[in-house]
Give the backbone structure.
Amino acid sequence: MRLVSSISRIAALLLLLLLPGCSREATVEQVRAVVHPATSSGVAVSALALASPRERPDPPTPPRVVSPSPRDEDEPQRSASSSPARLPLPNNGTIFAHGGGPLGRESQRRFAALCQHGDLVLIPTAHQDAGKPRYREFVRERWLSLGLASVSVVHAETHEEARAGRLVSRVREAECVWLGGGAQGPLVRRYRGTPIEEELFALLDRGGVVGGYSAGTSSLTEIMIRYGNPEPVAGRGFGLIGGVIFDQHFIVHRREQRLRSVLELHPELIGFGIDEGTALVIYGDRFEVVGESIVRRCTHARGCVGLAPGATGRLSRGASP
């Protein structure tokens, strides 16, 4: 056996010496890795590792997007008859998509004004502490001083509880709803396919406002980035607005590559990368950037352009000068 092993090592060494561009350049350590692998101080070197550049494998392919399957195990399934129709653009209501990070008072005041200081419902389910009454009260208190007619919290612990009449009626009676931050997967799982989701569509249809913060923003669209950077994993959101996809914490977390990867798979969509402390306000086919940082508008065909606070435009045409 030792003789066979020695012969194998010698054969491997000869292979190294015969490789183009390597016969004079193999280091002592690399040779030891072949002849005496047990005593080599480095990782064993294969013949492929010492091959000339033109013989090496191609570089890794670009990030792969894992798209939602028709049967996404992460979400409850709905029959076609129970699925609310996706709202085309333009629609009657207003979308307030915040990129996460600091939620400044100016953003809150702007949202309250769009709500016409009516009844606000907060849905903090995306947050890991949403099940704790103390956290829900903390979230509610942040909105109490904005002159809203009422501020209430809706949180369902299960998908079945999201069908409860007392929760559904609160959303039905609201002028605006705010979907809080955390993890978008649990948020969508909890409410997709329930009467609460249907009431979100109804709210927009009657001219109301739906706001999202961080994970809540991601959940607003049909194709939703669930997690992963730079290789994104896509899922299905609520689809409250058609033709677009949102990504949040965009500049701070360097997420342009992952958004462009999704757009490569879905070139029909317009991507908006919303940075922290910044919001994209969409009413009908028009948009406006508000806040402290920028929004990046991205398409598969033309790449990304930056939109500063105050920029306005049409979703289908880009920003105004």
The chain has two domains: 2-55, 80-319. Residues 163 and 195 are 6 Å apart (CA to CA).
